[in-house]
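Tip: read the tokens left to right.
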């Protein structure tokens, strides 16, 4: 059986805030049957039983990380 794994390592000015924001998604993932998600100090690990589940979960997390970092950078650039 195919198994896939992706790791997202966050390092930068917004990493702590992003990890806090995503903690709920890691602790209570939408589908526990096909995907397992772990979080360490600055890394999110996604393991999946098939490529579609891995791709979908990875895309979601990458978008959430991007959106959170963009929002924070906009807020920090306000006068």
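Filled-in amino acids:
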């Amino acid at each position: 059986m195919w198994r896939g794994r992706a790791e997202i390592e966050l390092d930068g000015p917004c990493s702590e805030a992003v990890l806090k924001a995503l903690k709920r998604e890691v602790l209570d993932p939408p589908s526990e049957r096909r995907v397992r998600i772990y979080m360490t100090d600055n890394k999110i690990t996604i393991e999946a039983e098939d490529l579609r589940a891995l791709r979908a979960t990875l895309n979601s997390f990458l978008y959430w990380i991007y959106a959170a970092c963009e929002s924070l950078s906009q807020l920090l650039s306000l006068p």
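The longest strand covers residues 4-9. The CA atoms of residues 38 and 46 lie 7 Å apart.
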